[in-house]
Amino acid sequence: QVQLVESGGGLVQPGGSLTLSCAASGNIFGINAMGWYRQAPGKERELVASITSGGTTNYADSVKGRFTISEDNAKVYLQMNSLKPEDTAVYYCNGHKNRYGLTYDYWGQGTQVTVSS
C-alpha cells in the first residue's frame, strides 16, 4: 500500500557530494517519520538520518555535519557532502507508520552509493 522508490545513487569520489531521493506513494496517511538507512557488506543496517512529520531530524554520529535530510511533501532527500569511502553502502529509504495502534515499516529497494577514487 506504500511504495518507496529511491534514486540518486552512484559512484562518487571521496570528498564529493551526492543527493538521494525517495518518492513515497500509495497510502501514505499515518506515516509520521521517514529516514535513510544504509547497509555495507558484512555490516548491520544502520540508521543514517531520520525526519519526523513534525520536522525533527536525527543523524548518526558518523554523518552528522555532512549529511542533511529534508522532505518536500511526499519526497525525502538525503544530501550527502564530504563523502568518505566508509559511506559506501546500499542506502534504503524507510517510512514508519503508526495508525490504529499498529506500527509499520516500509522500505525502498535500495540504491547503491560507492565512494571511491
Brief overview, please?
This protein is an all-beta fold and 117 residues long. The chain is built from no helices and 11 strands.
Features of this protein?
0% helix, 117 residues, four-stranded antiparallel sheet, mainly beta, 11 strands
- Uncertain parts: none
Mean pLDDT figure? 95
Largest sheet: 7 strands, mixed
Helix content: under 10%
Write down the secondary-structure element order. Answer: EEEEEEEEEEE
Shape: elongated
Q: What is the number of helices?
A: 0
Radius of gyration: 14 Å
Record field, number of beta strands: 11
What is the distance, rounded to the nearest whole angstrom, between the alpha carbons of the first and last residues?
A: 40 Å
* Percent in strands: over 45%
SS class: mainly beta
Walkthrough of the structure:
- The chain is mostly beta strands and 117 residues long.
- Helices cover 0% and strands 61% of the residues.
- The chain contains no helices and 11 strands.
- Strands 2, 4, 5, 6, 9, 10 and 11 form a 7-stranded mixed beta sheet that branches. Strands 1-3-8-7 form a 4-stranded antiparallel beta sheet, with no helix packed on it.
- The model has no long low-confidence stretch (mean pLDDT 95).
Layout of SSEs?
Layout: E1 2-7, E2 10-12, E3 18-26, E4 31-39, E5 46-52, E6 57-59, E7 67-72, E8 75-80, E9 89-99, E10 102-107, E11 111-115
Parallel strand pairs: 2-11
Antiparallel strand pairs: 1-3, 3-8, 4-5, 4-9, 5-6, 7-8, 9-10, 9-11
